[in-house]
Amino acid sequence: MASDNPAQATIAKTIADNDVVLFMKGTKQFPQCGFSATAAKILEQLGVPFKDVDVLADQGVREGIKTFSNWPTIPQLYVKGEFVGGCDIIREMYAAGELHDLICEKGIPHAHHHG
Amino acid sequence: MAMPAAEIERLIKATFPDARIELRDLAGDNDHWAAHVVSSAFKGKSRIQQHQMIYEALGGRVGGALHALQLTTALPAD
Questions:
Q1: Contact between A89 and B48 using a beta-carbon 8 Å cutoff
Q2: Looking at the predicted complex, does its ipTM rise above 0.85?
Q3: CB A76 within 8 A of CB A86
């Protein structure tokens, strides 16, 4: 997690400044990849406000996030500065109710209705 | 670019000899795979670490030569 590179510093600042960040291909309105679309949709289902970072708009961030997280693929979800996982983990956690639990535990306001 | 099932299995087994691997070709193009990997090596590891272990076993091919790998991991039920 070297910060001598501007992309790494940008990534670190983005996840420090936003409770929930999704690094994705495209934007939440216009996802450019099915996996990114799935991840964004799940966060919307939970009613969690999140910052979407379009990695296609910045090649430095696109490559930088892979080393930053030691994770080879996009999307990537960060909650309170902590790496949660990629599309498969997000999907698995959502199905098990664990993603909702995490959002609650971290005290993030969200519009999901319990029960 | 594509990667046949046998090659994916070989690479995972090279690192995790006890692994049970189920592969599904999602798009019929040898390029979009779903893998379910069961190994005792995952014991005590977080889900993120388990996935990172598989990505490492595949030697940086995920996201490159191996375009899409839908991954789930589990410990053997015993």
A1: yes
A2: no
A3: yes
Burial B22-51 (b: 16+ CB within 10 A, else e): ebeeeeeebbbbebebbbebbeeeebbebb
Among A1, A58, A48, A49, residue whose Cα is nearest residue A24: A58
C-alpha B58/C-alpha A88 separation (Å) is 17
Look at the block and give the residue holding tokens 């406000």: A49
Residue B32, in any domain of the structure: yes
When pLDDT is averaged across residues A27-39 and rounded to a whole number, the result is 96
Chain B residue with Cα closest to A67: B60
Query: How many angstroms separate the CA atoms of A48 and A44, rounded?
Result: 6
Q: How high is the mean pLDDT of chain B?
A: 92
Fold of the A6-105 domain: Glutaredoxin (3.40.30)
Which of chain B's residues have a Cβ under 8 Å away from the Cβ of A72?
Answer: 55, 60, 62-64
Query: How many domains, in total, are found in chain B?
Result: 1
